[in-house]
Design brief:
The protein is an alpha/beta fold and 409 residues long. It folds into four domains: 95 residues, no CATH class; 48 residues, no CATH class; 117 residues, 3-Layer(aba) Sandwich (Rossmann fold); 115 residues, Rossmann fold (3-Layer(aba) Sandwich). The protein is built from 21 helices and nine strands. It has a five-stranded mixed beta sheet. Strand 8, helix 20 and strand 9 form a beta-alpha-beta unit. It is globular and about 65 Å long. It binds iron/sulfur cluster (SF4) (2 copies). The site of one iron/sulfur cluster has 14 residues, from helix 2.
Length: 409
């Protein structure tokens, strides 16, 4: 059985070759080559599906160089579901071209990201690199990754297995996805999310049995690993009224869980990215809008928030409610080049896109950048001057709320 049989590939034929997606595709912008465009890639997928060509090296090159940013999907008049087709093509590559790199990624994206113990060990090693400032001896991709990290605290215990009661009138209970690296590397984002939600009246539970959402495994075509992680989470989040994620890549993937696990539609329909949930609470007046002007903030739209979930207004509404003036940096929302493990596989392209995004941010003059996705945050921090801070919109809001005397964080 072909890996493509796991997905509905019939929609690949719905591309009418109009080319409207081409100017929005980062790899087409960089190369000017149709092979590295959405239309070219869809043509290759359709040919492989029809069996007129095999999944050879050229197919591998065309598909592997795709960032999976889904900018093409967001502008397609034919509603071609590029993201799903891309994951199917990656699965076909895993099945037909099992390279050493793919075998390593299978372990890394399945077993390692699914294990809190392994992530803790990796975090301890990365913390030592930070502490002794020995990042310079690492290969270039690892240097950039370490430079993009927040200060790590390996002894800090994560949120998984805990619950927090609301501070005021109880409005309900929400479950938080603690994620794989979010808990270990982005603790302050979880602190802010939990602080804001409990301030708004929600009991926040963080199920112990949960694991990595599986987005990175799915994007890399590691189907069995992605399915196993999704199945674990379906059980862990059973019965939750609402599931909140403060990582855009994770919320986008949870919203597509019906494709990854039996019962996944239950998770899919109850998932909200924290930005859409909190912006709704601000609009309803449950959470306050602060009037004190705090300055400008440049807004970076993560692809899996803007293109995959079509969420753009909400982070800006949260930043305005925190007293900031949001500044747009790029009308097309071009990918910053992080794209999961893309920065490791295609360091040069990733670096060029990251450098362009950093330059756009510097040009705004803002000293604060809001990004709602951990990979984008790291990509930007590694390339921005040290005096420009990168933070999640929820952190920015919670800090403003706390400074105003309303919050307690
Ligand atoms: S915009 Fe959609 S229909 Fe047009 S070429 Fe791109 S994928 Fe095909
Ligand atoms: S997902 Fe992004 S990089 Fe891939 S074809 Fe679409 S626009 Fe281009």
């Amino acid at each position: 059985m072909s890996a493509l049989d796991l997905f509905d590939m019939s929609s690949a034929n719905s591309c009418v070759n109009c080319g409207l997606c081409l100017p929005h595709c980062p790899t087409f912008q960089l190369t000017g080559n149709e092979v590295y465009s959405p239309r070219g890639r869809l043509g290759a997928m359709t040919a492989v599906l029809a069996g007129t060509v095999t999944a050879d090296g050229a197919f591998d090159d065309a598909l592997s160089t795709c960032l999976g940013c889904r900018a093409c999907e967001a502008v397609c008049p034919g509603l071609v579901p590029y993201g799903e087709l891309y994951e199917a093509a990656q699965a076909e590559l895993v099945a037909k071209r099992p390279t050493a790199g793919r075998r390593v990624r299978k372990v890394l994206l399945g077993r390692v990201l699914g294990s809190r113990g392994m992530i803790r060990s990796f975090t301890a090693a990365a913390a030592l690199v930070q502490r002794f400032r020995i990042g310079r001896v690492l290969p270039r991709f690892a240097r950039h990754a370490v430079a993009g990290l927040r200060p790590l605290h390996p002894r800090r215990s994560g949120w998984a297995g805990r619950s927090v009661e609301p501070t005021g009138t109880t409005r309900g209970t929400v479950a938080l996805l603690s994620g794989c690296v979010m808990d270990a590397w982005f603790g302050p984002v979880h602190d802010a999310t939990i602080g804001v939600l409990s301030y708004a009246g929600y009991r926040v539970v963080i199920p112990q049995q949960q694991t990595c959402c599986g987005a990175l495994a799915a994007h890399d075509g590691q189907v069995k690993e992605a399915q196993k992680l999704a199945e674990t989470n379906v059980v862990a989040f059973a019965g939750a009224d609402l599931i909140i994620s403060d990582s855009a890549g994770c919320s986008a993937h949870l919203k597509e869980y019906s494709r990854w696990a039996p019962g996944g539609e239950e998770v899919q329909t109850r998932t909200r990215d924290v930005t859409e949930f909190v912006a709704g609470l601000i609009a309803e007046g449950v959470l306050p809008s602060l009037t004190e002007h705090r300055g400008d903030v440049a807004v970076q739209d993560p692809c899996h928030l803007r293109h995959a979930q079509r969420i753009m207004a909400e982070p800006r509404a949260i930043l305005r409610a925190a007293g900031y003036r949001p500044l747009d940096i790029d009308p097309d929302g071009l990918c910053c080049g992080a794209a999961g493990i893309y920065s490791v596989l295609y360091a040069e392209t990733s670096n060029e896109l990251g450098r362009r995004k950093a330059n756009e941010i510097v040009a705004t003059g803002a000293r604060l950048v809001a990004s709602a996705n951990p990979g984008c945050e790291m990509q930007l921090r590694a390339r921005l001057p040290a005096e420009i801070r990168v933070a999640h919109p929820i952190e920015i809001y919670w800090e403003a709320l706390s400074a105003s005397g309303s919050g307690s964080g």
